[in-house]
């Protein structure tokens, strides 16, 4: 099956305002692909090039070099956008329109009309909990409601590929859950979802595969499990009472980290052998074992590590 | 073409819900009504003053709307980033631009009709004659507004609102000085000056050709051939500006 999105050595350079100024490289050979029916996360710090990449895929920006294909067609093809839905970061909408007028406008731009459009508008408003606000102008909507109506316009024409730029941005926990649930529902319907985000726990929870972009280059790409080390346990956290950090000097040499927290002591052992030594030492000191928690690698650690590596 | 219509209707709806336009049309109504007061101060020229002021008010308000709404047609969409979602739909940039232009033209048409109605009622109230020349003048005012709107839209594809407004108003003024430019070119002894003035005369829109308000107020009609030629000139000029705007907009990054 062909990839929904294929990006190969994509570059984008911004020409300077004056001839003596240097040009700015925004993207330096970005390559990744998004399989059909998967949820793909695009991670990166501010200014990494995430939004630029998404805009090139939507034909909003012209690429300087490389290839960008969406649903088997070049990214700047007008016709392919009939099969794409898009929600930008912190979108602004025509606030003089009511929710219904807004969805009708964008539905018509996607080529829909008549009864089919009317039914889809009703379905979208019901699905996103906006039925009561159908005839209300968008200027009277809350931030959460605006995000939901923005999601509605992105999927009203039942696109095959949905692209979101920071969809959880500025939302409260309920709003974020609603967006997560919608993304999962889209995958169940066989849609492909590509979204950029800073919120790593959401990406870990939702995505089949991710790409991490830093300073215009993709530094890691693949399944979340593979990227964080196949779920291998990295460290083991032990919490005990009745023992102080200075009493554990014999295990500190083996790379164990100790933090005193009031009556409790938190000990981080590097591996299972280190764990055995820590537990023996706690028993020797007649301490009380409270909890033992293995820590696997996290996407956040990978993200931070890659960002520091590029600095 | 369907998408062009959708964009045009949405632009028209946006303008309708913008209260500034109501204020401008109300102001034009007041100007036209004020002509009744002024005309009462004159001796035997009441009809001409009402016709003159009425046509001038229609022209002035129309140009204000064309310039100040026209310069925001594209720049506002880019500043507010509403253009992102629109251009992510299966609509070309040219279709978007033409749709925005037609939306404003529709707005201007409705406003012009309202102002024309107020004007004709005022004229009738003052017992003035309803000459066909007045309708000729209004038709050519409409063509002038098409050109001014195209100018504002053209500049807004690559410059800020402030710069677009300055350039549009500047060209509007030059457009009404066309006969003088031609006169300077003919009388100048300096070849470079002649070339420059001739170039400006031909490149800038000859808006004076579309100005028959003086004759219309005096009840004098212009020949049909002249009216058709002037209309065709205005439409062609606006068309060329729109085409150039589409070329520039096509290459723009958002």
Provide a compact summary of the structure:
By secondary structure, chain A is an alpha/beta fold.
Please describe what this structure looks like:
- The complex is a heterodimer of chains A (311) and B (254).
- With 311 residues, chain A is of the alpha/beta class.
- Chain A has 10 helices and 14 strands.
- In chain A, the strands form 3 sheets. In chain A, strands 6-7-8-3-9-10 form a 6-stranded mixed beta sheet, sandwiched between helices. Chain A has a 4-stranded antiparallel beta sheet with strand order 2-1-4-5, with helices on one face.
- In chain A, α2 crosses α3 (114-127).
- The longest helix of chain A is centred in the middle third of the chain and has 16 residues, at 173-188.
- Chain A starts with a strand and ends with a helix.
- Chain B has helices at residues 2-16, 19-39, 46-70, 72-79, 82-87, 93-125, 132-156, 161-176, 178-187, 191-203, 213-217, 224-250.
- Chain B is mainly alpha-helical and 254 residues long.
- In chain B, 80% of the residues lie in helices and 0% in strands.
- Chain B contains 12 helices and no strands.
- The two termini of chain B are 23 Å apart.
- Chains A and B meet through β6 and α2 of A and α1 and α5 of B.
* Assembly state: heterodimer
Look at the helices and sheets of chain B and give the structural class.
mainly alpha
Shape type of chain A: globular
Query: How many distinct helices of chain B?
Result: 12
- Biggest beta sheet summary of chain A: 6 strands, mixed
Backbone shape of chain B: globular
What is the mean pLDDT of chain B? 88
Order of helices and strands of chain A: EEEHEEEHHHEHEHEEHEHEEHEH
